[in-house]
Amino acid sequence: MTEKYAVVVVGGGAAGLSAALVLGRARHRTLVVDAGEPRNAPAAHMQGYLSRDGMPPAEFLAIGREEIARYGVELVRDRVVDVERAEDFAVVLAGGRTVRARRLVVATGLKDELPPVPGVAERFGRDVLHCPFCHGWEVRDQPFGVLATSPASVHQALMVSQWSKDVRLFLHTVSEAELSDEDLRRLAAARVDVVPGEVAELVIEEDRLTGVRLADGTAHARSVVFTAPRPVPQTGLLERLGAELHETPFGAYPVVDATGATTVPGVWAAGNAIGFAEQVVHAASGGYRAASAIVGDLLMADLDAV
Predict the structure, then answer these.
(1) Phi, psi of 221 (to 5 degrees)
(2) What are the Cα distances from residue 232, in Å, to 23, 212, 305?
(3) Contact between 251 and 270 (Cβ < 8 Å)
(4) Which is nearest to 33 in space by CA: 55, 53, 8, 50?
(5) 3-state SS string over the chain?
(6) CA–CA dist 207, 223 (Å, integer)
(7) Which of 25, 68, 143, 177 is deepest in the core (most CB within 10 A)?
(8) CB-facing half-sphere around the CA of 155: CA atoms within 13 A
């Protein structure tokens, strides 16, 4: 017989585990389906989470899995490949198992597509970084490069100048003509050097980043490079369920209310599944909000059925 759960949580990152913790403590039978591909896996540490600052992401998730197990929450290492909605939800796993759930939490996150410059993917999370709030303190006062992926990279260059006064913006495939007068004024005020020309590769010596080499052969000594990956929201399940999405400069994300409820009755979303800028602390908070709303929703549904 198909197993029945009160809630299935799709995704076992900070958002999914936080939701599962609240649901387990509320005595709801809950299953977490986790593919084991957290967005912050390349990072050695996570920062800015009060009381967990500097903790390795893998350790954070391991503790979370231990905590949800105390309350009877089940976790399976698998992937949801399909979901159908009738009176409840039929959730199909890649391993061949199908379970039913009264409510769903979608915490599938997003994937980062990095610019195809040799050295970027290999060093990502080490000395190629994307978020100064996540890593700026650890690399402060070093020579920074910013590898532009669009004219919006000007903003990233301005932001990282808070952590270093030696910043060079490598325009790469962005032309100088694409920068506004206001961009140029602010870059000059922040003393950010603008370097035109396509980047050919990052220079790696003895397992560390030492520079940025342009296509014309010139090299610039840098020990840290920031760049903005292209975020790819993992919204396949939400789209199959018919959830309404809205376009943003960082991709299409589900329309949600303050608790994370989507436009599909019974389906909530949390973490990077609802936005590019959700950090770990935001994701955990979003999972908590979604779960607490689900607890109330299930209670009222049961009372109304009496």
Answers:
(1) -70, 120
(2) 28, 26, 40
(3) no
(4) 8
(5) CCEEEEEEEECCCHHHHHHHHHHHHCCCCEEEEECCCCCCCCCCCCCCCCCCCCCCHHHHHHHHHHHHHCCCCEEEECCEEEEEECCCEEEEECCCCEEEEEEEEECCCEEEECCCCCCHHHHECCCEECCHHHHCHHHCCCCEEEECCCCCHHHHHHHHCCCCCCEEEECCCCCHHHCCHHHHHHHHHCCEEEECCCEEEEEECCCCEEEEEECCCCEEECCEEEECCEEEECCHHHHHHCCCEEEECCEEEECCCCCCECCCCCEEECHHHCCCCCCHHHHHHHHHHHHHHHHHHHHHHHHHCC
(6) 11
(7) 68
(8) 7
User: What is the amino acid identity at position 234?
Assistant: Q
Residue type, 64: G
Provide the 10 A C-beta neighbour count for residue 86: 7
Q: What is the pTM of this model?
A: 0.94
Which amino acid does the sequence have at 84?
E
Say if CB 49 and CB 281 are below 8 A apart.
yes
235, 80 in Cβ contact below 8 A? no
Structure tokens at 129: 């970084």
Cα gap 200→266, rounded to integer Å: 49
> Tens digit of pLDDT for each residue in 193-221?
999 999 999 999 999 999 999 999 999 99
Decide: 244 and 268 in contact? Cβ < 8 Å.
no
d(CA 192, CA 158): 7
Pull the structure tokens for residue 102: 């009264």
Share of the chain above pLDDT 70, in %: 100
Cα distance between residue 182 and residue 185, in whole Å: 5
Residue 287's Cα: distance from chain center in Å? 14
Amino acid at 56: P
152-187 pLDDT, tens digit each = 999 999 999 999 999 999 999 999 999 999 999 999
